[in-house]
Amino acid sequence: MHARGLTKRFGALVAVNQVDLDVPRACVYGFLGPNGSGKSTTIRMLCGLLTPSAGEINVLGLAIPRQAEALKRRIGYMTQKFSLFDDLSVRQNLEFLATVQGLSRQDTRTRVDELLQRYRLDDRQEQLAGTLSGGQKQRLALAGAIVHKPELLFLDEPTSAVDPESRRDFWEKLFELADAGTTILVSTHYMDEAERCHRLAILDNGNLVADGQPKELTGKLQGRTFVIRADSPRRAKEALDGHPDVLSVAQIGNELRVLMRRDDVTLDAFRQSLHGVDTAMDVESVTPNLEDVFVVATRKPEQHEGQPA
């Protein structure tokens, strides 16, 4: 899947601005960004539900939106609202979706039986979908999205309404699909989920501000992250907020995670610069994480020196 110069305007608002994307086959490709960053709008354009204002899109060899109708049977789409029929049973939901996707009666029966077992819903197949737990609804929605064995699966923040255990289980199911050859594009605002992706794009205010493998993105910030343990973390944070070399400070429990503006500040030099702070501190260099990448990538334009690409 490829997109070049992808842009969407709603009146004076530019929701997506000149985005270029390359999504490899059988890859779990993540969209990370805050609410309103353009993730959902981008996904809707890629699957043909929304016409772009400008740009070119090629999905599975088809020109979108011109060939969007031909794309429908080759993709699956799942949103955070799960799009289930609450007054139909688990089985009826899957049978209806299979019929919509053009499966024969025999193929529907075989495929539905397979999905009920795979997603641990076979003991609830007669239960109304509206009475399921959040995790069960999530599994049913995923089963419905892949009932026709799509080549490409779009997931728009599919884990926002479920507990952490259900999220972990859901991601295991995604990797099973990717291992079987399905390409998956998933949007999220969870850092731990973003770290799981084979490749990741970060969107901010409609702009693509970072793109690459998670380890590649974090590697570009090597030497810029420190952890400080202080007797008075709040006092230390107040001093660090005004430090000329410090980009951001976040308190995590009794520790402070510090992100520097540059990678040429040595540990000894940083320690030396803190000698005037009125609290005992221990400083340690640590490995950058995706939250650090996100902070650098989503700064205001005038602050973007050293941004990971």
TrEMBL record:
Belongs to the ABC transporter superfamily. This is ABC transporter ATP-binding protein. CDD domains: ABC_DR_subfamily_A. PROSITE patterns: ABC_TRANSPORTER_1, ABC_TRANSPORTER_2. Signal peptide: none annotated. GO terms for molecular function: ATP binding; ATP hydrolysis activity. Coiled coil: none annotated. Keywords: ATP-binding, Nodulation, Nucleotide-binding, Transport. Residues 1-230 form the ABC transporter domain. It comes from Dyella telluris.
